[in-house]
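Hello,

Our lab assistant flagged a job as stuck in the queue for most of the afternoon. It eventually completed. Since we weren't sure the result was trustworthy after the delay, we are filing this so someone can double-check. Below is the sequence as submitted and the structure that was eventually returned. Let us know if re-running is recommended.
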Amino acid sequence: MQYGYGKLILFGEHFVVYGLPGIASSIGLYTRCQLYPNKTGIKVRDRLTNKNIVLGENKQEILDRAMQIILKETGLGGKNFRLEIDGDIPVFGGLGSSAALIVSIIRELNEHYKLKLSNEQVNEIAFKAEHVFHGNPSGIDNTASTYRSLLWFEKNLSGGKNKIELLKCKKPLLVVIGNTKIIHDTVETVAEVKKKKEKEPKKFDKIFEDAKELVFQARNALEKGDLPKTGELINENQELLQEIGVSSPELDLLCKASVENGALGAKLTGAGMGGCMFALCPDKKTQEKVAQAIRKKGFDSYITSVGV
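-- returned structure --
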């Protein structure tokens, strides 16, 4: 049984699509995949989305198309097997559930068929499969899931290798994730931001410059272990995301409630317009308080840590 882990984008979502740096981390929420023998064909049962496919019978299914890419890249097209997939990561929440799904599948195939794929190869295959889910993904989701680390990420807009640098912070960051349960379409949200950027280039150029400077400051704060400064920058990043129009009343509500209950900073994570947010907490007691505050607002909360 192999795992693929979810992710939080701590800084830079949307901006990374345009080549600006971002900081992301894997989280403890996961997808896991188990392979079983099968006499004929390939079957996949995804308990997270209640999807069951027989490969090739419904080529319109996203999971079918993703599997076709994985099989092509791994050279396993002629094999027969059954995959069982489950886990605890919320889907459609901006936590990288599709990347976690893909990585878990690739790692299970790699383990069972002794393919000896490196992390870099796993990541490359996962990125290709991610296009089925997200159209033009930045690559940050599959990278965080593959390397299971805090990382610096820059998308290569020329089509070459993305810049990936593993980062270290002095101690794990204690966070609470809040889930609005509002399903958003990442492709549509990214396209909407592009339209706004083309319509108001001067405004967006300034926002993008601010976002770039903020990420460099965040890296410095994280590496120094400066939690108050990190929280301050998280709040500033949320303001920039509000300016480009990807937050929502529900996300704003949960960010506000988190800060009012002791969080150092809070922002949406992922494409926005729903999905999840996270709050950085100074200690475990505050984590519990923030998680409870989110639940009192009628939303799900998850306590976890990142940066390890």
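-- support follow-up --
The delay was a queue issue, not a problem with the job. The result is valid. The longest strand covers residues 22-37. The CA atoms of residues 94 and 270 lie 4 Å apart.
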